[in-house]
Amino acid sequence: MLLVIDVGNSNNVIGLFSGKKLLTHWRIRTEWNRTADEYWVLIKEFILLNNVETETIDDIVIACVVPPLVPILQDMAKKYFSCDPLVVGPGIKTGISILYSNPAEVGADRIVNSVAAFEKFGGPLIIVDFGTATTFDVVSKKGEYLGGAIFPGIQISLEALFKHTAKLPRIDMVVPEHAIGKSTAESIRSGAVYGFAGMIEGMVRQMKSELGQDAHVVATGGIVDWIDSTTTVIDTLDPFLTLEGLRIIYEKNNQDRKS
Residue 157 to residues 20, 132, 134, 151, 244: CA-CA distances in angstroms? Predict the structure, then answer.
């Protein structure tokens, strides 16, 4: 079995694959000061809850946008799973060309998403990932990573609004029924959801214009459902796109690792 770990700024999303099948997945908060032993305890408990023996896990692949956590997860993998994990980064086979001014600057999660989306849907593509940041990534018809855009995510935008205003409250996030809010809380929700939906539509329209052709729009991330109900530009919802991408990248590199 393959354990895949997607380390984001806010959450770690962890999945367990048997072949190409995603058996289960978990989400835990990203804590910069967790030790390798603490990660082992957390992950082991999730694995055992699904009646899987840890000894059946053959390898681990990691995408991480929090650099200090990479050596900690590597240490955990070596100490408790007896494997040297594959870490997505420079030198890893992805199957796509990265046409960025400095390819090393592209976040591992953005590359993983692009690999998975191109493998599943072909190109051209626009991938929108709703995480701590909202990211847009564009892949050409030939499978070239062309670049994209980065925007503050909904949750950190709402947190900033609460922290930097005197009277606006911190709210629970639900999709509002109307754009015209009848209370402060409804107005904030409207701004977050319908405002972000408008931004998504405008960005997708601009990117398609620059591509000079239509593109399949794939959306992923923990809060994708909030936006999908308020816009028509998203063609496919794929909440496990990053986990699938990690599996695909592992398979592309597995032969070299075993030889």
Answer: 36, 9, 11, 10, 28
